[in-house]
Design goal:
Elements: H1 2-18, E1 24-35, E2 40-52, E3 56-66, E4 75-86, E5 90-97, E6 100-101, E7 107-108, E8 111-112, E9 117-118, E10 121-130, E11 133-142, E12 153-162, E13 167-177, H2 185-190, E14 195-207, E15 210-221, E16 224-226, E17 230-232, E18 240-250, E19 253-263, E20 288-300, E21 303-314, E22 320-332, E23 336-350, E24 353-368, E25 373-388, E26 393-407, E27 411-424, E28 430-442, E29 446-455, E30 458-462, E31 465-469, E32 472-482
Antiparallel strand pairs: 1-2, 1-32, 2-3, 3-4, 4-5, 5-10, 6-7, 8-9, 10-11, 11-12, 12-13, 13-14, 14-15, 15-18, 16-17, 18-19, 19-20, 20-21, 21-22, 22-23, 23-24, 24-25, 25-26, 26-27, 27-28, 28-29, 29-32, 30-31
Length: 483
Amino acid sequence: MKRTFTLIAVLFAATAAQAQLSNISANNRLELWVEDSLRATSYLNQLDLIYIGEKWQIGARLEMDEETWWDPERTTDIVRRYAEYQDESFGLRGGTFYTTFGRGLTLRAMEDEDVRVDRDIDGVWGSVTYKNLDAQALVGRMRNDRNSGRPNLLSGLDADYRLTPCLTLGGSYVRRDAESLPDDEELEQLGRPATEEAAGGRLQLTKGILDLYVEGAQRFRRGNDDVRGGWTGTTADDGHAWYGSLTLGVSGYSLFLEGKDYQDYDVPYSTLPPVNVAGQPINNGLDEQGFAAVLAGSPSADLTFELSGSYAEAEKELGERSATSGTVRKDWWGKGSLKLGGEWTEEVELESHTLREYAGPTFDASLYVSEESSLSLHSKILSWKNHYRGQELDEYTEVTADLTLALGPNRAFTFSVLKASEEIGEYDNEDVWLSGTLNLMFGYDRELMIKVGDERGGIVCSSGVCVYEPPFSGVRVEFISRF
């Protein structure tokens, strides 16, 4: 640990000295855990160095990872590095990059720190803008979620063409080639290398109060990428995916509708848009259909509301999810705000559950103590029904409350409590989780977060990507420094 901090200090000093001569910036993020249950210390340190010129940008990330609570790997490596040239009509980048084709049906490489998912591509990416045409192409190897391996080669092309100022047509194509090994008999039988392809098209119409978007994609498989056996000659059904959204907006009000139909669309380099307010796909989003609606309005400047609802079901597997929520917010300018709402979600025959349902009110309030200080409360009371297969129905109530005192823009303290009406077997027979968080900012260049207490863990979802976060009890420190 001492050597790690010494290395960071040396890199900071070198960066600060060079920053006087050229446009170089650095950002360091250190996360440190001291967990009570294991009496172990773990850390993740990410140091980003970036050079920005008139049309050039060069960057790299040095990562020192010793997250013993997350995975057994302990590494010190340059996990991200790139050089990019960009002008008004042409772009070229070599190294690590992220990109999206359309809404993500054929390709979506993403970084999402909220759920600890990094699906970057290591290769070459280029873009061209000419009159009404916007196009991009890539070739490289994608990191697959939490697995840092890059066994397969990706190549793809995406283009949008504006037929009129209101109407845009687009299309994309992605191909995945399996890693070709000399002694791989299965790939030899497939006519090495085995391939998987996805192709799609889209249309977007924007005119006045209307915004319409429709996208479809088809998957073509030449082999089966089995988790245990790798690429095999077993044929798999080709799948398809359809997604559409409609937005209507007038002064102060908006209506958003979306629908999806995904069947046998098992594309590991794509993140399909979820269609439910819970944000968690059914059957991993591989074989489901559904719809969602969101109505938002502001009758006056100090009054806003939002209503949302969604329904999704698996087409072949049993399972469905319904969810609704609503909020109303009132502001008293310079004094505070009050937001009241409620939510309800029901899941039937999903994963290990035959039934999971939670519903209850939500409450948010803020009191402006002075021009720079405020006191805010976020809370909810949820009534839960959990029915695991082969077990009795569990019914309990959870109360969640986060109370935050902000003393100006640079200091804030949050006390959090999660209390269940009974011990919950799903969470190691615990019934209460307490924590306190201190956030400090030292100008724009330094941020410090110290959290002490318990985290229950569980499924965390963001942008349709869901992972399991393990429970935690101890001290968590995060320090961000910019140069």
